[in-house]
Design goal:
Layout: H1 3-26, H2 33-40, H3 44-51, H4 54-77, H5 84-99, H6 108-116, H7 122-147, H8 157-178, H9 182-195
Length: 197
Amino acid sequence: MDGRLARGEETRRVTLQRAVELASVEGLEGITIGRLASELELSKSGIFALFGSKEDLQLAAIEHAEKIFRAHVITPAATADPGLPRLVALLEHWLTYSKSRVFPGGCFFAAVTAEFDARRGRVHDAIRSGQQQWGRFLERLVTEAVEAGHLPADTDAAQLAFEVFALARGANTDAVLSDSEVPYARAITAIHHRLGV
């Protein structure tokens, strides 16, 4: 890779990292090309050349956050045995991801979903698409646990996926607001109880 391309990729990576950190606390509207240029001591024109517009920057930030999320939650959970062990591991990794403040504001997606849930446009659509994929993934893991005989045959996979993730989301919200780890402990106890483990 030529030096300019390498520098451009590094600038993009550093810019997106700071963008997702800010967005987890202040929302996607809080990230601007000017602010990032100032904080990172980069030129506005250089960042603009990489992203083109604030909306494109927001979309790139969502994509970057998804990569970080996969690395901290989905990839490590994949090493657990199929069925209920993998489902439990996924939820535990999700709670650890929030608790350890991979993003300073807790779950990046909880923050931006609350910000854009009632809006329309490309950013809303990207967030909604990601949330729908996550919901389908959770539902698939519940279905696999049913097929493995780890959960009752009459389990409503969509309902159970919704319930256990609602507990995790609630823990994130309460923990960030109260600056306490107690909600995470309560959530994992509730999730284990709901899954019968």
